[in-house]
Amino acid sequence: CICIVFVPMFFLTGVAKYLFVPLAEAVVFAMIASYILSRTLVPTLAMLLMGHAHAPKAGSKPNLFMRLYHRFDAGFERMRAAYIVILSTVLVRRGRFGTIFLGFCIVSMGLVFVLGEDFFPAVDAGDIRLHMRAPTGTRIEETARLADEVEKVIRQVVPQKELVTILDNLGLPYSGINLSYSNSGTIGTLDGEIQVALNEDHKPTQTYVDKLRQLLPQRFPGVEFFFQPADIVTQILNFGLPAAIDVQVVGNDQQGNFDVARKLYKQVRQIPGTVDTHIQQLVDEPVLNLDMDRTRLQQLNLSANNVAQNVLISLSGSTQTAPSFWFNNKNGVEYSVAIQTPQYDIDSIDQLLRTPVSATANGPTQLLGNLVRVGPQSQFALVSHYNIRPVIDLYVSVEKRDLGSVATQVNKLVEQARGSLPRGSQIVVRGQVQTMRTSFFGLGVGVAMAIVLVYLLIVVNFQSWVDPLIIISALPAALAGIMWMLFLTGTHLSVPALTGAIMTMGVATANSILMVSFARQRLHAGAPPLTAALEAGASRIRPVLMTAFAMIIGMIPMALGLGEGAEQNAPLGRAVIGGLLFATISTLFFVPLVFAAIHTRLARRNGGAHGEQGPDDGAGAGDGKHA
């Protein structure tokens, strides 16, 4: 059962497949190895270690281990006797108890609407990625000076003993070959990214992020600051995007799309839990527009291309020179030659207009000022495309609230904004939230398929349609336990939590099989259904508790989430612990109740002699030996 519940995970697609198929493989292979060893090595060791056991001599004093064992066993027998009394009462009043228990499970399912949804828990990787964006048109020298001032503030907020490095990346993206190598989000000389690495003994990184988010806008008015994911897990889940939610306004009318995005930006910022909301594209980059005098150009036998090429070479340089390289005789190294007008020679519009323009290298020249009229304008500082079409990106990060709730409110605003879109434009919500919805659906289907596969497997082994239903009747309690544990610990519903739910299904079903299989044996031996259920509970309480508590104890370190990056798997451990706690109670009380109720009704229908016999009429219920 533990192996088969993981089968649906092998049919996951997308990022969920690469995240959880290795986990499923590890569990399945471990269980297969455990099964083989339990049938080979364990019996052999039992024979070797216990075959020569001898009774202690009369009057000999037992050792410490034996004294602890006898004391524990005596306490367990007292608990077992109390359990038998309670189970007898439950079986007699099974209608009332069953109604209350099922009602509790159904009500508990309602917690799913208040838990909140996250793809993955936030991980404290000990890194901070701060993006700063100065006013459009800021020179790189001014941006560098601004970065130095921001670094001083960071050193005031973060203690020096916790700092490892502070790294600045200013200006254009740091990959000049392929922009896909970089997700820093830098679009020009006006902005940059500051990466801060903390040592292992640092305080929670989020504490410093909150302080910087509040302090930096006060110290540097007019400069935009936002934080990007620093841990590799979140970066992968975001597929390189700087935020969990990316609202894209797609269409050819870029200015109209930007106006829609700007309106959405003001509305989204008011949603509780949203932080670092910003529009990636800027529309107000200052430029100088050169309006060419076509008549004058024709008179001078020049073209617009001649003007553009001469200005481009003067400002940006060119390697199309003669000679194209220079050979240094002293060291034997060849150097490529590029030409460009020194920047200090073009520090005003007047000097720009003195740029010579010619049609050929040796032809007559004209000053640029005689050929064009200069006027200030503004343009898009960045033009982005998605699937060829121009796009405006509104990035939204989430903090101190679950991603699902924020995404729901964002989607409502997006639906309202569709009516004001320019013709031919559309709004699409992408990012981690889209992947989360897909993964949740896949894992939800996986949980349902796991229950169905477990049921069919038990049907084949038990050769019955009824008893497998009794066995899986413990699963609603397991789901209720998961909901309550996540609710009480303040843990959002996430993919690790759903994975823990799948694991819980296997263990809970295995415990129920222990209970029902023994009850079937007693029923076939002639015991009444109530007596068979009571004896099954009395005999199987020890292995049921051992299996459940072994799993629970093993999950406690994971559930605590201690250590670097341990927050990622904490929901899985908490889900397993909560699910098994409730599933164990269901196995010990509700499963015997369902078994007794169904088989009593079947016995009445078939005219059986034991249909009405109560638990007190069956001999040996309290004397059944534990397995």
Automatic annotation (TrEMBL):
<protein>
    <submittedName>
        <fullName>Putative acriflavin resistance protein</fullName>
    </submittedName>
</protein>
<feature type="transmembrane region" description="Helical">
    <location>
        <begin position="440"/>
        <end position="462"/>
    </location>
</feature>
<keyword id="KW-0812">Transmembrane</keyword>
<feature type="transmembrane region" description="Helical">
    <location>
        <begin position="544"/>
        <end position="563"/>
    </location>
</feature>
<keyword id="KW-1133">Transmembrane helix</keyword>
<feature type="transmembrane region" description="Helical">
    <location>
        <begin position="493"/>
        <end position="514"/>
    </location>
</feature>
<feature type="transmembrane region" description="Helical">
    <location>
        <begin position="18"/>
        <end position="37"/>
    </location>
</feature>
<dbReference type="GO" id="GO:0042910">
    <property type="term" value="F:xenobiotic transmembrane transporter activity"/>
</dbReference>
<dbReference type="Pfam" id="PF00873">
    <property type="entry name" value="ACR_tran"/>
</dbReference>
<feature type="transmembrane region" description="Helical">
    <location>
        <begin position="575"/>
        <end position="598"/>
    </location>
</feature>
<dbReference type="InterPro" id="IPR001036">
    <property type="entry name" value="Acrflvin-R"/>
</dbReference>
<feature type="transmembrane region" description="Helical">
    <location>
        <begin position="97"/>
        <end position="116"/>
    </location>
</feature>
<feature type="region of interest" description="Disordered">
    <location>
        <begin position="606"/>
        <end position="627"/>
    </location>
</feature>
<keyword id="KW-0472">Membrane</keyword>
<feature type="compositionally biased region" description="Gly residues">
    <location>
        <begin position="617"/>
        <end position="627"/>
    </location>
</feature>
<feature type="transmembrane region" description="Helical">
    <location>
        <begin position="469"/>
        <end position="487"/>
    </location>
</feature>
<dbReference type="GO" id="GO:0005886">
    <property type="term" value="C:plasma membrane"/>
</dbReference>
<dbReference type="InterPro" id="IPR027463">
    <property type="entry name" value="AcrB_DN_DC_subdom"/>
</dbReference>
